[in-house]
Amino acid sequence: MTSDRRTLLADAALDVLADEGIRGLTHRAVDRRAALPSGTTSAYFRTRAALFTALVTRLVRLDQEELRTTAEGLPPLRTAEELVDGMVALTRQRLVGEGRRRSLARYACAVESVRVPELREILVPRENAGRQAVRQFLADQGVKDAETRTHTLLTCVDGMVFDRLVNGGEVPREALEGLVAAALR
């Protein structure tokens, strides 16, 4: 039960952060969002730092599950067009619905991690099936230092998602095609 309650509170904190931003993330706001009695969140997460740690840990777990599930359903990448198709799908996933909410929370946590190094350690990009597929595709195409190119490519895609969260709209396919072409050079 304690584990379930902690997950419920972390999910509620993620929702509060997505809706209200860093300043709105309080123990009381999480209690209200989770529809639990006042003081429940502080009983499980005594400090704001502990609440942030739980939120970020949950966010990373959700992201990793999403990436694993998405990658499991894909065949190995054979062409640049297939890679771009996957990136278009990923960026759309990150810009609408629940993916948008998690993206908003993720970027807020990334900014907070500048001041709280413990959060940065949790947020560090993880090895996952999606990253592995991109790296393998680049290596199969003869790209030297596929690891560095993979990191650069995915960082650029992440930046485009951030830009679209702030400015609206979708990430243009042409922009993703340009990034993939650059990674292959």
How many extended strands? Answer: 0
Radius of gyration: 18 Å
| H/E element sequence | HHHHHHHHHH
Provide the structure class.
mainly alpha
In words, what does this structure look like?
- This protein has 185 residues and is mainly alpha-helical.
- The protein contains 10 helices and no strands.
- The radius of gyration is 18 Å and the shape is elongated.
Structure summary:
By secondary structure, the protein is mostly helical. The chain contains ten helices and no strands. Helix 1 crosses helix 6.
What are the main properties of this structure?
mainly alpha; 10 helices; single chain; 79% helix; 185 residues; elongated
Write the layout of secondary structure elements.
Blueprint: H1 2-24, H2 27-34, H3 40-44, H4 48-72, H5 80-95, H6 97-112, H7 117-123, H8 129-140, H9 146-167, H10 173-184
Helix pairs in contact: 1-2, 1-4, 1-6, 4-6, 4-7, 5-6, 5-9, 5-10, 8-9, 9-10
